[in-house]
Amino acid sequence: MIALSILSLTAVMILEFKENQIRNLSILEEKMQAGWVADNQLALLKLAHSEQKPGPHNGKVMMGKRIWYWRVQLLPEERLLQAIDLDVSLHPDFSVLSASIRTYLSVSDKPNRGNLY
């Protein structure tokens, strides 16, 4: 009887563990895809024209059978660096962020290849 109760408790614990793994897998998948969207937008931004205007730029892109919304905030340039804030969300109002990145772009490293935004 004791062995049967130990076995049933072990089975319940294993099922709960697997349920948590499955739940966390979808969260990790969302974070990973949001990171890819952010990386793609940052790469496009780095290829953009050197005369980008400070302010918000936003858009949407399809990846992984989902529509991802992104927004880029170009902060005013300092002497050598320009701060860039990038947010990615599955919601158009950005109520829940899947990824949020702040990076810096060297003013002298900006290529002059045409305006992408």
From TrEMBL:
Topology of the protein relative to the lipid bilayer: Single-pass membrane protein
Record note on modification: Cleaved by prepilin peptidase.
Protein name: Type II secretion system protein I
GO biological process: protein secretion by the type II secretion system
Alphabetic keyword roster: Cell inner membrane, Cell membrane, Membrane, Methylation
Oligomer status and interactors: Type II secretion is composed of four main components: the outer membrane complex, the inner membrane complex, the cytoplasmic secretion ATPase and the periplasm-spanning pseudopilus.
Pfam families the record matches: T2SSI
Organism whose genome encodes this protein: Hamiltonella defensa subsp. Acyrthosiphon pisum (strain 5AT)
Cellular compartments annotated: Cell inner membrane; Membrane
Family: Belongs to the GSP I family.
Superkingdom, natural source: Bacteria
Role of this protein: Component of the type II secretion system required for the energy-dependent secretion of extracellular factors such as proteases and toxins from the periplasm. Part of the pseudopilus tip complex that is critical for the recognition and binding of secretion substrates.
Domain Type II secretion system protein GspI C-terminal as annotated: residue spans: 28-105
GO CC list: plasma membrane; type II protein secretion system complex
